[in-house]
Amino acid sequence: MNFVALKMLTGDRAKYLGLIFAIAFSSFLIAHQASIFAGIMDRTRSQIKDVTDADIWVMDRNTQYFDEVNALTDNDLYRVRGVSGVKWAVPLFKGNPRAKAPDGKFRVVILLGLDDATLVGAPRKMVLGSADDLREPDAAIIDEAGYRFFFPKQPLELGRTLEMNDHRVRLEGICDASAPFTTLPVVYTRYSQALGYVGRERNLLSFVLVKPEPNAPIGELAKHITQATGLKAMGGDQFGWATIMYFIRNTGIPINFGITVMIALIVGTVVAGQTFYIFTIENLKQFGALKAIGVTNRRIVGMILLQALVVGSIGYALGMGMAATFFAIFVHQIATRGILLLPQVMIGTAVVVIFIVIVASLMSIRKVLVLEPAVVFRG
Amino acid sequence: MKKGNEYAVVGREIEKWFGEGEARVHALRGVDLEIRMGELAMLVGPSGCGKTTLLSVVAGLLDMNGGELTVLGETPAQMSAQEQILFRRRNLGFVFQQYNLLPALTAAENVAVPLLAGGWNRIDAVAEATRLLAQLGMEDRASSLPALLSGGQQQRVALARALVHKPRLVVCDEPTSALDAATGRTVMELLSEVAVRPDRAVIVVTHDSRVFEFADTIAHMDDGRIQTVETGAARAQQIAAQATQARELYA
Q1: Domain end: A231, A250, A269, which one?
Q2: Best exposed site among A140, A170, B20, B160 by fewest CB in 10 Å?
Q3: Are residue A81 and residue A101 in the same domain, yes or no?
Q4: Which residues pair with A163 in a beta bridge?
């Protein structure tokens, strides 16, 4: 009877296509919005993710997320180094000075000051130049998006200069940094140099980056550091999630995206459910005839579920295809770089589509199950 | 003679009502019914007399509220719902007033549905259906969709669907009411030729007096009861006499 179910489904082209497009656009919208949301949230921890040399971040005990820090003292760095299990610990400065291009164009940047000796936290993906060139006087590395802001429509080349706090900054490298949440340019320089690029405060040490000894678990060592120094210490992954959760809790971003996803879910369910219901109602006499002929309720439920499964699968595939095409086109744009169609989002959308088709088919199944086959004898 | 001694349907004091309390409507008020194998029986009467309800009860599509009913030697009232479905699938064929063909299926595929429901594979079922359609003079329309067939052709497809699985009881609800006189007659001729066999009974609900002559027995119903039962031959004589009377009147 499966082919009967499929022919019944495809026989009414308009409703068949209506069902598919309802599910396709719902799944596209859900996947699209969820991916952008995930991508934007992921951007809040971009600079944490980009530091792959150190495993533990130590910061002021009241620090909630990456972008808002209270400076530590130089003494804190030495105290952390003294904790058992710490292989090494280096300073990291994070600030937001204003940088100015020679033509007067200016913008606040994310300035990361790396340990002078080790350059721990230096960018790993260089587009032009080398991270070691940071050792040159006034040297800095800027991310490609920032370079294109300060020097639009100009070829990538080294040696260009910016000005920060009346200091000349010479760009000795261009890197591919993860896009930050704020879309500000990311500039890397040495710690000692970074301190001169910002307005002078008494303390400027933002974070201490720690590498554990090989036998020291990250979580345990972070606890030891906290106990020994009174500072907050956590693994990079944990700090990344803390930053994401800060934005989720304290901004309207999840609500806005959540509303769009909910609307997509509701519209998809209602449109698909309504169309499927009408499709079933219009075929009610035929279903009645099948029941009279001796097709069991179970078989008819199977037929309806098969129809829903086919419509859901095709609609989902189309929706994912549209979403994948969208992200394939925009993943290389500066504003949307790094935002991808995540496998987790695809799986989640599949679950939602399954929900939509089950709800849609349940409305129809109920109608058919309570249908008396004697209805076929009523003209 | 086509009639056998075996009874296809035996009903005693069949009661059926709808609704409860003051809203209760009696559709069948103690119907007695006997239909033999090999017989084409017609249930006739005015609208609302209960003939379609009786057909639904006999076909197992409605449960009766009282009385006794035996169909093909079995007692449907004693069967579970699943057993009733299987019984219908194996033993009953249906012809509906509005044909009720699946619009997306070809004529042959529509005819094949009872075989598919019985577990046949698609290729064999459609081949068997096509063979039967050829017997009914529809071989050139086997691949046509119902929308492309005339009313008479659709009813022939419906007839083929009712017979394809070789049921022992065929029930027809107003099979000619949606057809013109000539087409209705053709369908009835086909029905009496192909469907009526010694090992099968056919029950036709109709109010179309033009087709009474095809009946072996005619049960006249009114107000939920069978009022009279006459043989087809007697009824045919009555119709012929009425026709002669009419000719003399207008001569």
Answers
A1: A250
A2: B20
A3: yes
A4: A100, A168
- The whole-angstrom separation of Cα A96 and Cα A109 is 5
Q: Are B100 and A11 a contacting pair at CB < 8 A?
A: no
Return the percentage of chain B with pLDDT > 90, whole number.
47
The residue in chain A having the minimum alpha-carbon distance to the alpha carbon of residue B170 is: A293
Tally of domains in chain A: 2
pLDDT confidence of residue A334:
76
Give the number of other Cβ atoms within 10 Å of residue B33's Cβ. Answer: 23
What is the sign, positive or negative, of the torsion defined by CA atoms of B153, B158, B161, B166? negative
pLDDT at B243 > cutoff 70: no
Kindly state the percentage of chain A with pLDDT values over 90: 47
| Separation between Cα atoms, residue A189 and residue A93, nearest integer Å | 9
- Chain A CB contacts of B113 under 8 Å are 4, 290, 293, 295
The full set of domain ranges for chain B reads 7-102+167-250
3-state helix, strand, coil in chain B (%, to 5): 45, 25, 30
The correct answer on CATH 1.10.10.10 for the domain covering B7-102+167-250 is no
Strand partners, B70: B10
- Are A214 and A246 members of one domain? yes
Looking at residue A202, its pLDDT comes to: 67
Question: Rounded distance, CA B16 to CA B39, Å?
Answer: 25
> With 70 as the cut, is the pLDDT of residue B3 above it?
no
Q: Show the domain range for A90.
A: 51-250
Whether A319 has its CB under 8 Å from any CB of chain B: the answer is no
The reply to whether residue A10 touches residue B113, judged by beta carbons under 8 angstroms, is no
Residues A170 and A29 in one domain: no
The DSSP string of B157-220 is HHHHHHHTT--SEEEEESTTTTS-HHHHHHHHHHIIIII-BTTBEEEEE---GGGGGG-SEEEE
Lookup: tokens for A241: 């999630």
0.85 surpassed by complex ipTM: no
β-pairing, A56-59 with A232-235? antiparallel
A277 burial type by CB count under 10 A (0-12 exposed, 13-18 middle, 19+ buried): middle
Q: What integer is the mean pLDDT of B67-87?
A: 91
Q: What is the mean pLDDT of residues A93-114?
A: 92
As a whole number of angstroms, the distance between CA B58 and CA B75 comes to 10
Q: What is the per-residue pLDDT for B236?
A: 59
Give tens-digit pLDDT for B87-144.
Answer: 999 999 998 888 888 889 999 999 999 999 888 999 999 999 999 999 888 889 999 9
Closest Cα in chain B to A375: B61
pLDDT of res. B122: 92
Partner B, chain A 258-317, Cβ-Cβ below 8 Å: 283, 285-286, 288-296, 299
Tell which residue, B203, B175, B199, B201, has the closest CA to residue B187: B175
Residues of B in contact with A379 (CB under 8 A): 97-98, 174, 177
- pLDDT, tens digit, for every residue of A9-56? 888 888 888 888 888 988 898 888 888 888 888 888 988 988 888 999
Please give the residue that has the higher pLDDT: either A135 or A277. A135
| Statement to judge: residues A280 and A265 lie in one domain | yes
Cα distance between residue A182 and residue A44, in whole Å: 8
Q: Are B99 and B38 in contact (CB under 8 A)?
A: no
